[in-house]
Design brief:
There is one protein chain. The protein is of the alpha/beta class. 40% of the residues lie in helices and 16% in strands. It folds into two domains: 2-161 and 317-340, 3-Layer(aba) Sandwich (Rossmann fold); 169-312, Rossmann fold (3-Layer(aba) Sandwich). It has helices at 16-27, 61-71, 83-95, 107-112, 119-131, 141-149, 194-198, 215-221, 233-241, 257-264, 277-281, 293-300, 305-312, 317-340; strands at residues 2-6, 34-38, 45-47, 55-57, 75-78, 100-102, 135-138, 155-157, 181-185, 205-209, 226-229, 245-248, 269-271, 287-289. The radius of gyration is 20 Å and the shape is globular. The chain starts with a strand and ends with a helix.
Amino acid sequence: MNILVATDAWEPQVNGVVRTLKSLANAVRKFDAAITFLTPDGFPSVAVPTYPGLRCALPRPREVAQRIERVAPDAIHIATEGPIGAVVRQYCVKRGLPFTTSFTTRFPEYIAARVPIPEAWSYAVLRYFHAAARVTMVSTPSLMAELAGRGFKNLGMWTRGVDTDLFRPERAIDLGLPRPIFATVGRVAVEKNLAAFLALDLPGSKVVIGTGPEDAELRRRFPEAVFLGALKDERLAAHLAAADVFVFPSLTDTFGVVQLEALACGVPVAAYPVTGPRDVIADHPIGVLNEDLRIACLEALNVSRTACREYALTRSWETSAKQFITHLRRISTRSREVQAA
């Protein structure tokens, strides 16, 4: 099966969407499928004023059409709602081609945190965008329920996985910091709510892995914290495994793949009881959810690291890829029927 995935999020960005798509591309091979990505590469771009450090691709519709037709995909999936996603959506709608989408980022909340645009307006735009899809894939049951309540239709489950060979306890290194070590990983931006973590009165050390527009401001406000910048692959795994607790302070993430990466390293999670952490942790003894993040951090120190690792071993990318492929095989059959009509 030949799949085209359109995405505005791609390298050099380091985020959950990019890591998910790259892991998915490896995993679908087990199901006799291959993914070709239609990314910002090769298109002109402009800076995003409200999102320092990011650039927005300016895709040319004719070139997008040519790229799609060169691939001649059996199925098309639109991973993001940005300019590339919008042009690919237009291409499919104009030609009557079925496609799937995924809801991976809470853009309404992210936008509202930067400019005075009501979330309801942004959700109306997203509802329109996804309404044309045969299936809109979501990562958790609670997100599915929330979007259904907002009027989204044709929702389907697509869970996330983790590379348990890359992320494992044995990779831990000595960071040379006072313990316990409370670590967080992600883009250093306002929507990640990192200040809520860094302001906590906790023993030991606080470590931040990642970069972003709030980096300088948070370093100034919290000089006692250790900022390691962006880390990838083995280095990320080694530093993550060195932590005693992984702190996930975000209130807006739809999932948070890095939670699974921490658990695969044997590191328990401390988070707020919101979508993402609530679905990953649930009632499993692998972390602590509490409206008081300090309490969650301290209680997570008592969680079994072995239990965390064992749970992560059940969350494979193979399972995730199988769900994804199942949705696409359905529209692939319909796609051939449309073309034959």
